[in-house]
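Why does residue order matter? Because the sequence determines the fold. Keep that principle in mind as you read this record.
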Amino acid sequence: QVQLVESGGGLVQPGGSLRLSCAASGSIANTMAWYRQAPGKQRELVASITSYGRPNYADSVKNRFTISRDDAKNTVSLQMNSLKPEDTAVYYCYAFLLARSFWGQGTQVTVSS
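Structure:
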């Protein structure tokens, strides 16, 4: 069982930065990731990271976002730079462990001037 709690969302101007954090309780997940869902759109993968630390990014965020994990603290973070209005969405933390998926409650990120 894994419980996930996100933090760090908010309002930021275009070109700004935000850092999202996700604290996990329970077992260390194999893969952890960040998804996002904008109004009227499907939830999409933003970035993922394996237990070996290999990251994977959506094309839309490459070279702007960085995912990292700290298994000692059981956390995963998403550093978001050069934010654009189209990055506005609810961001969800995700963990995959023993063939089960776990989701956080989501945190709102709004990019607007």
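The two ends are 40 Å apart (CA to CA).
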